[in-house]
Design a protein that fits this description.
Blueprint lengths: L8 E8 L3 H12 L4 E4 L15 E2 L11 H17 L4 E9 L7 H13 L10 E4 L12 E10 L1 H14 L3 E3 L2 E9 L2 E8 L5 E11 L7 H5 L9 E12 L7 E5 L5 E7 L3 E5 L3 E2 L11 H14 L11 E10 L13 E6 L7 E6 L5 H12 L24 H11 L5 H11 L3 H4 L19 H10 L5 H8 L8 H16 L5
Parallel strand pairs: 1-2, 1-10, 2-7, 4-12, 10-18
Antiparallel strand pairs: 3-6, 4-6, 5-6, 8-9, 9-10, 11-14, 11-15, 11-16, 12-13, 13-14, 17-18
Helix pairs in contact: 1-4, 1-7, 8-9
Length: about 500
């Protein structure tokens, strides 16, 4: 038994899990005036939330499974998120090549009509039919198609910015800190948090606990939380490959396959195409998920069946896989499993409540967070109203990427334009904080390669919970696609020197 530590700091809310749901809930709760602590056993967005298809979308294919409520909510959220995070989320047009033997044109038109009208569109244009010609990147046998709108998102930065928003409102965010024991003692939870590197144990108390552990949401009941899991989850693996760009069009493509699945081919980091995803049931450790040879072949095959430019394994610059913790609705196939979410509240009389988050998708994270905090509002009579639909995420307080780039170019004319463009799309108005104290190119410090200057690295270490090169190269930026091994080792050596000197916590 854990000893009751009356001197332990008391929080209104302990959130376990630093993915998009956990960080979204922490940001919502803190902005309503609750005292919040969030702990994540690894880096923020280290698992599922950094391994998505990078889309804010309604889910056109979910209409085939009659998930109209989920699609309507997701479509409405596109508009909200485009407004509050214009630096990391922006509109993207999708082209759907028509294959008559897979889905009739009438069925696609009906689906796109619903997609256009299930929720109010403000910024995004409607769908339309299109014809492909000799200048298009598709094979010549495909002549007809459709075009519609959704949005792109830098998924891992969305998580980090929500953690920053929570911190701005007073939350404590602890990364690389494992919640190793939680016990109810009357109206409070007693928790032990273990810092992964030092082994230091922190004892805290909390009025409520949120289990937002993603792929570990059910196993947390076996290892840490009391009682059995109230819901079963189905782990579904989604994998992606990154190749040199297949075309110069600004649009993404959505490809239908013979197995009724769809695969996206998305413009990625200017010079690449992101191809994915798969849907494969997964049984192993979520921390060890990886793309399989069969999935790689699947993605190469469908791309080559549509595009003139053929690719092989030798073209793959990067691959990744993530495990989606979906509600187990006993669907026959992984692709048919619902992407909806369910909140399970365990609140015995006069005992501290526990809220567990099952399922969800990145597009609806804000609505899930709002619903989660609303469920806990009864335990906090003085809680404020939800404000996340109006509050810009950190760095998102500007109207236009073009205008912001113009403004930053005037203030920081010594920064290469390509680097400033990346800053706008990653940090927005936080760029001024990143570049604070820099008045010439020398002040930017060492260039570790491809415009990753020391000033940016230092900012990420000091303000965004980055601890190592992988945190910076794959989650805070995507420069891991560009830096070679020697450059990455040089970056890691710099970080370690700073940590040893005590400059970085």
């Amino acid at each position: 038994m854990m000893n009751n530590n009356s001197s332990a700091e008391l929080y209104d809310l302990l959130v376990i899990g630093g993915g998009i749901n956990g960080c979204g809930i922490a940001a919502d709760a803190a902005s309503r005036g609750l005292k919040v602590l969030l702990c994540e056993q690894q880096d923020l967005a280290a698992a599922t939330s950094s391994n998505s298809s990078k889309l804010i979308h309604g889910g056109l294919r979910y209409l085939e499974h009659y998930e109209f409520r989920l699609v309507r909510e997701a479509l409405a959220e596109r508009e909200v998120l485009l407004k509050v995070a214009p630096h990391i989320i922006w509109p993207l047009r999708f082209r759907l090549p028509h294959q008559p033997h897979l889905r009739p044109a009438l069925l696609i038109r009906l689906g796109l009509f619903l997609y256009d009208h299930l929720a109010r569109r403000v910024t995004l244009p409607s769908s339309r039919g299109i014809r492909f010609g000799n200048t298009d990147p598709l094979v010549t046998t495909i002549r007809r198609g459709f075009e519609y709108s959704d949005a792109w998102v830098d998924d891992s930065r969305l998580v980090v910015l929500n953690a920053m928003a929570a911190q701005y409102h007073g939350a404590t965010v602890l990364t690389r800190t494992r919640c190793q024991l939680v016990q109810r003692e009357g109206a409070f939870w007693q928790a032990e948090l273990a810092e992964q590197h030092s082994g230091q144990i922190r004892h805290i108390q909390a009025r409520t606990v949120v289990n937002a552990a993603g792929p570990w949401v059910a196993s947390l009941f076996e290892q840490t939380l009391p009682g059995p899991t109230p819901q079963k989850i189905r782990l579904v693996k989604g994998s992606h490959i990154v190749v040199p760009k297949l075309h110069d069009d600004p649009q993404a493509y959505i490809l239908q396959n013979e197995d009724q699945r769809i695969v996206f081919v998305i413009p990625y980091e200017d010079d690449f195409s992101l191809i994915g995803t798969t849907d494969v049931d997964y049984q192993g450790d979520p921390a060890k998920v990886a793309i399989s040879d069969a999935e790689t072949d699947y993605l190469l095959q469908i791309s080559n069946s549509y595009f003139r430019r053929k690719i092989s394994r030798q073209d793959i610059r990067h691959s990744y896989a993530g495990v989606r913790p979906l509600l187990d609705d006993e669907a026959d196939s992984a692709q048919a499993v619902t992407r909806d979410y369910k909140l399970e509240l365990d609140a015995p009389m006069s005992a501290a409540p526990l809220l567990s988050i099952f399922g969800g998708k990145i597009t609806t994270y804000r609505k899930l967070a709002q619903a989660a905090v609303d469920r806990l509002a009864a335990f906090f009579p003085h809680i404020g109203a939800c404000r996340t639909a109006e509050l810009p995420l950190p760095g998102g307080d500007f109207a236009s990427q073009v205008a912001l780039l113009r403004e930053l170019s005037q203030s920081y004319d010594f920064v290469p334009t390509a680097v400033l463009q990346r800053y706008v799309r990653s940090y927005g108005t936080l760029t001024s904080q990143l570049l604070g104290g820099c008045s010439n190119q020398t002040d930017l410090g060492e260039d570790f390669g491809h415009g990753l200057y020391q000033a940016e690295v230092t900012y990420l270490l000091n303000h965004e919970w980055a601890h190592n090169a992988a945190d910076i190269l794959w989650r805070r930026t995507k420069l891991g696609l560009r830096l070679d091994n020697a450059q990455q080792l040089r970056l890691q050596a710099f970080i370690e020197r700073r940590q040893q000197s005590g400059k970085v916590a």
